[in-house]
Amino acid sequence: MVENKEMNQEHKFKLVGYKNFIRQNPKSDKFVVKKFHHIEFWCSDATNTSRRFSWGLGMPIIAKSDLSTANYIHASYILNSGDLNFIFTAPYSKKISEMNNQENTASIPTFNHEKARYFSNTHGFGVRAIGIEVEDAVEAFNVSVSNGGVGSGEPMEIGNGVFVSEIKMYGDVVLRFVSFKQQPIGSDYVLLPGFEKMDELSSFRGLDFGLKRLDHAVGNVWNLAESIAYVKSFTGFHEFAEFTAEDVGTAESGLNSAVLASNNEMVLLPMNEPVYGTKRKSQIQTYLEHNEGEGLQHLALVSGDIFMTLKEMRKRSCIGGFEFMPSPPPTYYKNLKSRVGDVLNDEQIKMCEELGILVDRDDQGVLLQIFTKPVGDRPTIFIEIIQRLGCMLKDEEGKTYQKGGCGGFGKGNFSALFKSIEEYEKTLETIKQPAVGVSAATS
C-alpha cells in the first residue's frame, strides 16, 4: 500500500457492515470523471494472450502497436466489444531498441522495460493500469497529487489531443487518466494514438458475445482502511457498498470489502482485505501470497444478454477459452422466484440453473453474475460476467440509460461466490502423502 502519512482525520475509514451501511452519493469527486476507458494487462507474450482473450470473450482484436508498426519497445494489442477495451502489452528485448536507436517508439509512453519484467516475474499475468476517461487528465493528475496521490506518470500528450497521466493505486497497479481535447470520430479511431487497425482476416472479426462495458475493477489489499482512505483522498470518490466477514464469510474463512464510486457511479472500484484467525486461510490472503503483493483480483464485464454470452463462452471453455467456478447446489435455485420476484420468468430461471448464474437483488434492481476460474497459472486474477436489470433512467436529451451500480453487488451472490472460491481452492491443495518409512532389517 502506498504510504500517505499526511492523511487527514476526515479521510479515516471504518467498516460498519452491510446491514448498517447507508447508501448516499455526496457528489464529492475532485475532478470530472466520465467512465472506464480501458484496462491494460502486462504479460510476457501479448500475441498469444490477446488471442486467447479475444477467442474466449468474443472481443475482436481491433488494433496493434508492434514491430510491424515501428514500435521497438513493446508489443500491444487492443481488444474491443462495445465500450469495453482491453490492451495486452509485453516487452521486446531492450537491446533491440538500443541497437536500432529506437528508444522513443513506444505507443504507451509510460511503459518501462524494467518495471514490466519485474511485474511479470513477481505477479505473473495481471492488470497494470485501470484507465478511466476524465475531462482533463492534466488537472486530474495535479489535483490527485495535491491531495496525497502518488504520481506514477506525469501528464503528457500522446498525440491528436489525447492526454494521459498516472497515479499509483495499490501494489503495482496504476490509475490511468485519459482525456481528449475533442472526441475522436471516424473509422480510423482505434482507442489511442500510436495504434494501427488490424487486418480483418487476422483479428477474429465477427466474434461478439454481447459484452458491453467494464462495470467494476476489484483490488485485493493488505489493509482495507488505508487503501480506501488513500484512494478517497485523491479522487473524492464516495462509498457505494460495504461487506464484512459476517455478511459474506463462511464458517471457515472471510474477508472485508468496500466499494468506491465516482459521482455518476459508472466507475466502481471495490477493494477486499483478508481476515485472520479463521479455520482456513482467507482466499484474499491466498491471492496476496501468490501475487506477491496487492493487485487487481477481478474485472466485472457487463453483458447485454448474459444467457447468450455464457452459452458462447462455455462452448469454448475447453478449447482455449475460460472455465467457470463450480455452480451452486440445486437448492440455491429452488426458491429463486420468491427472492427476486417476477423479473425472471420460469425459462430464464431454468437457464440460470443450467448455466450456473447467481441471482440477487437490492432495493434498486436485480444482478445476474457468474465467475470464471483464475485465468492464468496462479490462483489470482479472474473474470466476472454480469447483467444488471432495472434502474432505467432518461437523460436530458430523452435517451434511456441504466443507472450505474443498479442491483448493487449482491450480498447473497457475494456469499455464494466466496463459498465457491473456497471450494475451488480446496481442489488446489496438495494431498500430503505419508512419508515412506524404511524399516531396518534385523539379522
Keywords, separated by commas or semicolons:
about 30% strand; 19 strands; 2,3-Dihydroxybiphenyl 1,2-Dioxygenase, domain 1; 12 helices; alpha+beta; about 450 residues; disordered N terminus; disordered C terminus; nine-stranded mixed beta sheet; 2 domains; eight-stranded mixed beta sheet
Lay out the secondary structure:
Blueprint (H helix, E strand, L loop, with lengths): L32 E10 L3 H12 L3 E5 L8 E8 L2 E8 L2 H6 L13 H11 L2 E9 L2 H10 L4 E9 L2 E9 L2 E8 L15 E2 L13 E10 L3 H12 L2 E6 L1 H4 L6 E7 L6 E7 L8 H8 L4 E9 L2 H10 L15 H4 L1 H5 L5 H10 L2 E4 L3 E7 L10 E9 L1 E3 L5 E3 L8 H18 L15
Parallel strand pairs: 1-4, 5-8, 10-13, 14-17
Antiparallel strand pairs: 1-5, 2-3, 2-9, 3-4, 6-7, 7-8, 10-14, 11-12, 12-13, 15-16, 16-17, 18-19
GO biological process, one term: L-phenylalanine catabolic process
Protein name: 4-hydroxyphenylpyruvate dioxygenase
Main location: cytoplasm
